[in-house]
């Protein structure tokens, strides 16, 4: 079946086509939810973020100019709203919420095959500063380029790369330390 582009769905939705609006929402809501879950740490916060982004989208869909992909524009809104939520709320440190995330969540990196490794990485991600966690989320899980991330966050590509590689170094060190501790316990 022919898959309509986001742009054609946007045009139809702006003309009042509810079916086109629903297709547009269905196409992106899962990725937005898992983005929120990984970044914010709880299903409740992820649902709040999703609803907030969809409300902003409903009110501001006509402001999309097409300068970047719709997905990039949409995740720019989600980035802003998620960072605002992180500033307003104390970050939830709930391991159970992340453990419930399905293995077939969109965009999970292939190198994190085992559930145990995924859980360890998710735990260590929560220890990163929000700016670094956000860049990793956008690069690994949403598969944006450094330039797209820079555009979304209104920072330079070099700053994005710096945050990305700093986060990877911190994760590597944390995971190595965790592995050494686990080996010592045997």
Automatic annotation (TrEMBL):
<protein>
    <submittedName>
        <fullName>RNA polymerase sigma-70 factor, ECF subfamily</fullName>
    </submittedName>
</protein>
<keyword id="KW-0804">Transcription</keyword>
<dbReference type="InterPro" id="IPR013325">
    <property type="entry name" value="RNA_pol_sigma_r2"/>
</dbReference>
<feature type="domain" description="RNA polymerase sigma factor 70 region 4 type 2">
    <location>
        <begin position="120"/>
        <end position="171"/>
    </location>
</feature>
<dbReference type="InterPro" id="IPR036388">
    <property type="entry name" value="WH-like_DNA-bd_sf"/>
</dbReference>
<dbReference type="InterPro" id="IPR007627">
    <property type="entry name" value="RNA_pol_sigma70_r2"/>
</dbReference>
<dbReference type="InterPro" id="IPR014284">
    <property type="entry name" value="RNA_pol_sigma-70_dom"/>
</dbReference>
<comment type="similarity">
    <text>Belongs to the sigma-70 factor family. ECF subfamily.</text>
</comment>
<dbReference type="InterPro" id="IPR039425">
    <property type="entry name" value="RNA_pol_sigma-70-like"/>
</dbReference>
<keyword id="KW-0238">DNA-binding</keyword>
<dbReference type="GO" id="GO:0016987">
    <property type="term" value="F:sigma factor activity"/>
</dbReference>
<keyword id="KW-0805">Transcription regulation</keyword>
<keyword id="KW-0731">Sigma factor</keyword>
<dbReference type="GO" id="GO:0003677">
    <property type="term" value="F:DNA binding"/>
</dbReference>
<dbReference type="Pfam" id="PF04542">
    <property type="entry name" value="Sigma70_r2"/>
</dbReference>
<dbReference type="InterPro" id="IPR013324">
    <property type="entry name" value="RNA_pol_sigma_r3/r4-like"/>
</dbReference>
<dbReference type="GO" id="GO:0006352">
    <property type="term" value="P:DNA-templated transcription initiation"/>
</dbReference>
<dbReference type="Pfam" id="PF08281">
    <property type="entry name" value="Sigma70_r4_2"/>
</dbReference>
<feature type="domain" description="RNA polymerase sigma-70 region 2">
    <location>
        <begin position="24"/>
        <end position="90"/>
    </location>
</feature>
<dbReference type="InterPro" id="IPR013249">
    <property type="entry name" value="RNA_pol_sigma70_r4_t2"/>
</dbReference>
